[in-house]
Specification:
- Chain A has 2 helices and 12 strands.
- Chain A is mainly beta.
- The longest helix of chain B is centred in the first third of the chain and has 5 residues, at 20-24.
- Chain B contains 2 helices and 9 strands; from the N terminus they run αββββββαβββ.
- Chain B has 204 residues and is mainly β.
- Chain B has helices at residues 20-24, 157-161; strands at 52-60, 71-75, 100-104, 112-117, 133-139, 147-153, 179-183, 186-192, 202-203.
- The chains are: A mainly beta (251), B mainly beta (204).
- At the A-B interface, β1, α1, β3, β9 and β12 of A face α1, β5, β6 and β9 of B.
Chain lengths: 251, 204
Amino acid sequence: MPADGATNRAPETGAFFQRDRTWHPPALTPGYKSSVLRSPQKALLSFDNTLSEITGPVFGHAMLGELDDDLIHNFARPGESAIGERIIVHGRVLDERGQGVPGVLVEFWQANAGGRYRHKRDGYLAPLDPNFGGCGRTITGADGGYAFRTIKPGPYPWPNGPNDWRPSHIHFSVFGHGFAQRLITQMYFEGDPLIWHCPIVRGIPDKAAIETLIAALDMQATIPFDARAYKFDIVLRGRRSSMFENRPEGN
Amino acid sequence: MAQSLDRLRETPSQTAGPYVHIGLTPNFCGIDGVYAGDLGATMINDKTRGERVELRIRVLDGTGTPLKDALVEIWQADADGLYNSPAELRGAADPNFPGWGRQPTDMVSGICMFHTIKPGRVPCRDGRLMSPHITLWIVARGINLGLHTRLYFSDEEKANAEDPILARIEHRVRVPTLIAERQGNTYVFDVHLQGDKETVFFDS
């Protein structure tokens, strides 16, 4: 999986900034019931990154199909399209130093406009859309930018509390340049009142951290008479400069 | 007031949820025709160098029940201990080995299988060699932030005994939670999310 020319920047080999685990949701968030039996209870083992965490896979543009970044059409029958609010989601993948992270794979998945997932375990009574699959992917450009076209997902009920509803959201999976940057998160939509009721969202202790997961309506990126736009930037761990560190491989 | 550090903060993690397969292994969950195949499903070909091995991995919750909706990714060096990554500056890794794989746990048995090769040894920053290992990253419904651990090999006793990361584990009784048991060409590895046999997870 060679790099495919998204950047000429020399590869960086510094260790990553330590993760602020008070900013992320803790493993145990009892309001989100599934976390109770799936959260480690012993302390994590800390150590500075080795090559096993500093390195990571790179995916070339050659793997992408023409419609991978278009969920309105990538599962649709010829001439048809998914039902729902047509939107563009765009933004940049940055690191904590504010630098764009080029050439990284971003994958996303979501329910349809009615809140139904195309998954055998989803038994919600809202119907499937025969023209909507719900998955897409892209690779960031030279400045870390990405964009895809989709329909806005609907909220859906889930078996947690007796009447819990997930806010509209799109799941994101992001690779960085090192495996220690690997991240999965969820994007929410500006103004959705369900955000502040959701036990999964509220597992994040800090309101300011939650707000970084809310995409802003972006009228300037909207395509008139076609699709509205939302902007969602994603920040991955930054890298330490290696200028005053020992050479990574010793001797 | 001192100057601002002008740093951004990492985007907070959220659970991958029960439908993670839709995005990351769509063909596995019946969404075919969008991608040719599931990314990371195949790690080796006829030209890949090294000893072929299978990893038989389960992830168990605090009651000992296997997770049937988890997703496991692995990242490892090639047979010579080189990573297939631009940040690998020691040499060129085997071009027929990406080093990365992704598998869901089976929806009935909870088992996930990787067909890969046994990795070579990789040095720490200070030059000491680590024992052969595979990095695991585990996400699932109920896991708020992907869990990071390592799989070491039961037939590498001597190397394991001098591994600088294993050496950092204060409670020695927990070291075996990171060691997969060899059965023929298969390594069997159970990840316990919590309880008496809780696997050692990393913050690195």
